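Continuing the series of single-chain predictions for the mutant panel. This is the parent chain; the variants come on the following pages.
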Amino acid sequence: MSMFLEIIIRTFTAFIILWIFVHILGKRTIFQKTYHLLIATITMGTIAGNLTFNYKIKFIYFILSFVIMGSVIFTLNILSVKSRRFRERIAGKPVTLIQEGKILEAALQKTGFSMDMLKQALRGKDIFNLDEVDWAILEVNGSLSVLKKAEYQNITRKDVNLNLPSYKVPVELIMDGAILSDNLSNSTYNEEWLNKELKKRNIQVSEIAYAVVGTKGNLYIDLYEDSQQPSN
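Parent structure:
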């Protein structure tokens, strides 16, 4: 086998194995970058990179490394789900940085957070004044959760006793000129209802780029032709 062909095969193999690895571990690998998952991601990426270009090492050794690392991370994930104490040991615990409006300097120092970093993280939450913050907690995945003081919190409908109808989850009905049958069968809207609505508007399914029932129950239609206006 030529070196060129071997690199191609190794590259595709590395991609497939990494895809399987992420798929097995689930969305947690992407969303919750805890210590062990971050280490696993870096390690698996390094192994995949070596598998692709380091053709001097036997192919089977890389496969063995993938299996061993994948098994270790999979086992750690199972144990972290079943045991809170074990989860705290391998993933860490949330750290309170601001408590009842007071900045905890010791916690900042412990987590390696400077005041500038804290202010930057708060600005990411649209908070430019430290005086607005009641609690700020650094989560295990590195994100900052913030609770504003009562006087700075947004007013809800319940606060002003407004009895407004609740919104629904949008339901996509047509995309790229094709009916999304699964969405129709899993919602209160069926294909017969859709055909009636399209007939009212004198529109064919093939003419529609996108159609969705919005949060208020209104049907929005976007046509391929720019000269034709979307229907509501």
